[in-house]
Automatic annotation (TrEMBL):
Organism (species): Gadus morhua (Atlantic cod)
Superkingdom field: Eukaryota
Domain WASH complex subunit 7 central: 587-930
One GO term of the biological process aspect: endosomal transport
Protein name: WASH complex subunit 4
Length: 1158
């Protein structure tokens, strides 16, 4: 046993317990999951990078397109092959003729219709250059030559068809009725365009060339043939007689042995088929299942005319029946905006029959058009609602049926359901398209005005039409898969029906040639069905069954289902082409006048603004047609004109309105406190424009219009431009930007203008230019370094502080600081001139000298203090000299002058502080101000480029400038003292030395004024109210410094005298109160309380003035004596020119020239 080998069947690894299968399934599931995730990631990347970012995909931009129409590789001779040679030949001839007619029809629709339709387009009426129409016709001649050849070919084909049919029906009763099928396919081309006027101009141009051929470098012998050709083209094509010429051809050809006009069998067969086709068409027109019956109706009428011209007989009953259809179908759209009126056609082409009818009936038919149009326009709104429900429910069914896969157990049922859904979509598209085209073209043709309601309704139908097309396109992968299965199923059903009929024929043992033809035709139909459902095969089936349905081969209950199956097969095989054809909106080019009304409607109903995409897709449908235009040098010219026209309308009626309304809404929202407009939504309505911003970009031609980006750009541009015009409004526009972001989701761009902030207030430049206005309208607060507006028309007062000035300096640069000080100097020079004149006045000077003498004489008695009563007497005494109309004395005006001088100095102080603030914030990134490296030297050491060295030197200069500016801000006061002090202290300005003596009366005047201003704060009328005016203290301190009179003023001990005086009076009041408390006289006590309170207020005001003056003196370095300052100046060797002189040489005031020279 040990020596035995294990049989291969017992090898362990061959044992299968199912684990391997389970493991494989798990791995496959994981792999499928990975693929799904990876696909979704790729899809996300594709969506992010994809150029086509619109909601509606542009069909012309498909990177990969599915062509569902099968192409036949075999020739007709190979397809039509049976043992019956005669039948083969007959079927082949008619198949070839039908194919030829289809090709000619396709060529006419794509090439010639469009070339003729767009002739003259692309040039506006206002910009037509002299001779342009002749040039266009010159370009068009070659096209007309091609058209002439095409028409000739059509004539030949028509004659050939008639000859072939006549040969078949040469009184031979036993022949098959093959005309039924060929009659269906026989379509007569009829278009009448009148461009005779232009060709007339062109012919006149040729005559002028005749007279002077040398000038145009053309040989004369070439002109005559060309002129003949033009006359031939005009006669053949441009007189609206193409169809007339076609039916009036000579069909009898004895040379060929073909007799047509006298062929009674052919005439009878022809008439029978016209009646049969008409019966089929009439029953379907106007029905929900109608799909191409209107085109067939036009074909039947043309066949009727051809029959009349060949055989010269009229079937009155049929003629009347044809006219009766006009009540249901007053007009048929042949292509674009070309309408065909059957009553006009039949009455002009078959005049013999028209004469038999009374005029009333013909007029009644024409009157029916107006009735039809009126009924259609009234029913439009109802139609829109109905189709809206139909199409949306159909789209839901499409999504539902296509999203679920095939169920193997119910495959036939699924395919049948899908087939019906697809066909239903085509039927809806056909019905909607027919309503739009017929209504619009009839309005245009009959020159009737269209109401806005009708326009809106028709545009809604256009959207529905594109929605149907979009649904098919969006699910094209699934549709393509389904169509191939559906066609196979339909072919199978048709084969079963034909197989049954074939067995029935074979079972009948009687032999006859007709039976053999029938059997052969059924075999041919079977062979054609066994293969892809190409156009050629379906044509062969149709022709074969025209023969095969004789002799009751099919029962009635079998024939109708077979015809239905074949009809479905036709539609399903050309599904994509049918959808494209029915949903084609190229006719909108001729009705683009409705576009502005449509846009206004979209704007008014912003909720469903997404429908814009459908309309733009519809407007783009005419582009392929435009490419066939031959009258312009390049088709791009025509396209560009159209593009500009549509975009101009789009901008005017939607984008620009949207921009303006959004801006208006933002403005009103930001300025709600002004109550500019009634914003109650219950009264004025509410329009939510934000819906437009959720739209994906709209694509038209090769351009995307992103509504959100467009409005954002407009607002950015507007806000930026308006901010640059008025920089102080930047905060308003910043608020509007934020609101636009919150309310509409717009990503606004920051303006990045020089940093104007809420902290800026009045601009430094503005103050500098108008410093005389500024110092009179603003009050200075010394402690907080702030200027406050005296009075304002608004409910608020403007303020200016250091941050405002710093931001303003950052805007304009530090160079503005020196300029500001220079302007202040100019201002002070003028004010000191007035100051000098006041001090030189005899009334003032005499009083001051008198007071100085009095003080010197009595100072020992008054404890070295200047008496308060003397100052008060001076203040009252000045009033006797006169007052201004608004009740101000000369001393009040002098006090204001000193306050303005002080304000100017306060402004200089603020400029210095603001400069330091600005420089410190700019230089904060420099680590050590004491040790700044030289970047230029370092760059040179490294041997870097010349541009880098220049940049480094600029950086060094900037750093140096910032460092020096941050250090030398303290020099401004010193300069302003230095420039005026020598002249103030000179011997010829002795009258100014009395100034220290006028300070006490000025102080009394100031305190009275200040208390009066503060009391007005509590009153209703706040005119003249103020709580600070430290400009007076600054002015007094500055002038005392200029006159070097700090010691003289201090020797008066003025504020000590004031304090003593008020404390003494307050003690007396308190003492009196204690005495009167026993008498209990309430009125007297109240008076004493008020007196005490008034004294406290006055003392407080004087104390505040004292503190302010003491603070102000620090700025002017009061710690140095006059002698020390003189010694310092001598050491520095500074000389000062005289700055004061009067016109007559006497010392009256500062001399501006000398001061400026300093």
């Amino acid at each position: 046993m040990a020596g035995e080998t294990i049989a291969p069947d017992w090898e362990f690894d061959r044992f299968d317990d199912g684990s391997q299968k389970i493991h494989t399934e798990v791995q496959l599931k994981n792999y499928a999951k990975f693929l799904e995730e990876y696909t979704s990631q790729l899809k996300g990347i594709e969506d992010a990078l994809d150029e086509s970012i619109g909601d509606v995909w542009d069909f012309t931009l498909d990177p990969i397109a599915l062509k569902l129409v099968p192409r036949e590789q075999s020739s007709l001779l190979e397809l039509i092959k049976t043992d019956n040679k005669v039948l083969n030949k007959v079927i082949t001839v008619y198949a070839a003729l039908c194919s030829e007619v289809k090709k000619l029809k396709y060529e006419a629709e794509t090439k010639f219709y469009n070339g003729l339709l767009y002739y003259g387009e692309g040039v506006s009426d206002t910009s037509v250059v002299e001779g342009e129409s002749q040039i266009q016709m010159g370009r068009f001649i070659s096209f007309l030559q091609e058209l002439s050849c095409f028409v000739s070919r059509c004539f030949e084909v028509v004659v050939n068809i008639v000859h072939q049919l006549a040969a078949l029906y040469n009184n031979n009763k036993g022949s098959a009725k093959i005309i039924e099928s060929s009659g269906v396919h026989f379509q007569v081309i009829y278009i009448a365009f009148s461009i005779n006027e232009v060709i007339g101009l062109f012919l006149r141009l040729l005559k002028s060339v005749h007279h002077n051929p040398g000038k145009f470098s053309i040989r004369e012998e070439k002109l005559k043939p060309f002129e003949k050709l033009l006359l031939k083209l005009e006669g053949q094509l441009l007189d609206g007689m193409i169809l007339q010429a076609c039916v009036e051809q000579r069909f009898d050809d004895p040379a060929e042995g073909v007799s047509v006009a006298k062929n009674s069998a052919f005439a009878e067969e022809f008439a029978f088929n016209i009646r049969t086709i008409f019966t089929n068409v009439e029953s379907k027109i106007g029905e929900p299942s109608e799909i191409d019956q209107r085109d067939k109706y036009a074909g039947v009428c043309s066949l009727f005319v051809l029959h009349f011209y060949i055989f010269r007989t009229v079937d009155k009953k049929l003629y009347k029946s044809l006219l009766d259809v006009c009540k249901k179908v007053p007009a048929v759209t042949l292509t674009a905006n070309i309408l065909w009126f059957p009553d006009n056609f039949l009455s002009t082409k078959v005049q013999a029959a028209a004469k038999m009818l009374d005029k009333k009936s013909l007029q009644a038919i024409k009157a029916q058009r107006d009735t039809y149009l009126l009924h259609k326009s009234q029913a439009l709104t109802k139609d829109v609602q109905s189709y809206y429900v139909f199409v949306t429910s159909w789209m839901m069914k499409m999504e539902a049926i296509l999203s679920r896969g095939h169920r193997s157990e119910k495959l036939a049922e699924d395919l049948n359901g899908r087939c019906n859904i697809f066909l239903q979509g085509i039927l809806y598209a056909y019905s909607i398209s027919t309503i739009i085209k017929t209504t619009m073209n009839m309005y245009m043709s009959m020159q009737r005005p269209m109401t806005k309601t009708s326009v809106k309704a028709l545009c809604r139908l256009v959207e529905l039409l594109k929605a149907v097309e979009h649904t098919f396109h969006r699910r094209s992968m699934v549709v393509a898969d389904s169509v191939s299965h559906i066609t196979q199923q339909l072919q199978s059903q048709a084969l079963n029906a034909i197989g049954t009929a074939k067995r029935r024929v074979i079972s009948d043992k009687k032999y006859s040639e007709q039976r053999l033809d029938v059997l052969s035709s059924l075999v041919l139909a079977e062979n054609a069905l066994n293969g892809p459902s190409t156009r050629e095969r379906r044509l062969a089936i149709s022709l074969a069954l025209s023969v095969g349905t004789q002799m009751k081969t099919f029962k009635d209950e079998e024939l109708l289902p077979l015809q239905l199956v074949l009809k479905k097969l036709d539609l399903m095989s050309e599904l994509k082409e049918r959808v494209r054809l029915q949903c084609d909106c190229s006719f909108l080019y001729w009705h683009r006048a409705v576009f502005p009304i449509y846009l206004d409607d979209v704007y008014d109903n912003a909720v469903d603004s997404a429908r814009l995409h459908y309309m733009f897709t519809a407007l783009r449908d005419c582009v392929p047609c435009m490419l066939h235009a031959k009258h312009v040098e390049s088709c791009d010219q025509l396209l560009e004109c159209y593009h500009e026209e549509i975009m101009d309308v789009f901008h005017e009626h939607l984008l620009d309105k949207l921009c303006k309304d959004i801006e208006k809404d933002l403005r009103l929202s930001v300025h709600t406190h002004l109550k500019l407009d009634d914003r109650n939504p219950f009264k004025v309505g509410l329009k939510d424009l934000a819906h437009f911003f959720s739209l994906k970009p709209v694509r038209f031609f090769n351009r995307f219009v992103d509504i959100k980006a467009y409005v954002t750009h407009y607002l950015d541009q507007t806000f930026y431009n308006l901010t640059t015009v008025a920089l102080h409004d930047w905060a308003t526009y910043s608020e509007m930007r934020n609101l636009a972001s919150q309310r509409y989701g717009l990503s606004m761009t920051e303006a990045h203008l020089p940093s104007q902030t809420l902290e800026q207030g009045l601009d430094v430049l503005e103050i500098m230019r108008n410093i005389h206005v500024f110092v009179s309208r603003y009050l200075y607060n010394l402690n907080n370094q702030i200027f406050i507006e005296k009075a304002s028309n608004n409910k608020h007062l403007n303020t200016i502080n250091i941050r405002h000035i710093a931001n303003s300096i950052r805007t304009h640069g530090t160079g503005i600081m020196n300029t500001t000080v220079n302007f202040t100097y100019q201002f002070l020079r003028k004010k000191f001139y007035i100051f000098s004149q006041f001090m030189y006045d005899e009334h003032i000077k005499s009083r001051l000298i008198k007071d100085i003498r009095f003080y010197r004489e009595t100072k020992d008695e008054s404890d070295q203090k200047y008496p308060f009563d003397r100052a008060e007497k001076f203040n009252r005494g000045i009033r006797k000299l006169g007052i201004t109309p608004d009740g101000q004395s000369y001393l009040d005006q002098f006090r204001q002058l000193i306050s303005q001088i002080g304000n100017a100095m306060g402004y200089v102080r603020m400029i210095r502080s603001g400069g330091l603030h600005c420089c410190s914030s700019a230089i904060r990134f420099v680590p050590d101000l004491e040790d700044i490296v030289n970047f230029e030297e370092m760059v040179k050491e490294e041997g870097l480029s010349e541009e880098t060295q220049k940049a480094a030197s600029v950086l060094d200069a900037v750093l140096g400038d910032l460092t020096s500016n941050s250090a030398e801000g303290t020099e401004y006061f010193k300069k302003l003292v230095g420039v005026f002090a020598p002249e103030f202290r000179s011997a010829k300005n002795m009258h100014l030395r009395n100034f220290y003596m006028i300070v006490p009366p000025l102080a009394v005047n100031f305190v009275e004024h200040s208390i009066g201003c503060k009391e007005k704060l509590n009153k209703k009328n706040k005119s003249g109210a103020a709580f600070t005016d430290d400009g007076f203290a600054m002015g007094v301190a500055y002038i005392l410094k200029l006159l070097d009179q700090y010691l003289e003023f201090d020797s008066l001990h003025w504020f000590q005298a004031v304090r003593d005086k008020y404390i003494k009076e307050m003690n007396a009041v308190v003492k009196e109160q204690s005495v009167q408390a026993t008498s209990q006289d309430e009125k007297l006590l109240q008076t004493m309380n008020l007196t005490q309170k008034r004294l406290e207020i006055y003392l407080q005001e004087f104390e505040l003035l004292h503190f302010s003056l003491s603070s102000a003196r620090i700025f002017f370095r009061a710690d140095k004596t006059a002698a020390e300052e003189i010694q310092e100046k001598r050491d520095r060797g500074e000389g000062v020119n005289k700055a004061f002189s009067s016109a007559d040489g006497s010392s009256v005031g500062p001399n501006p020239t000398e001061a400026a020279a300093k």
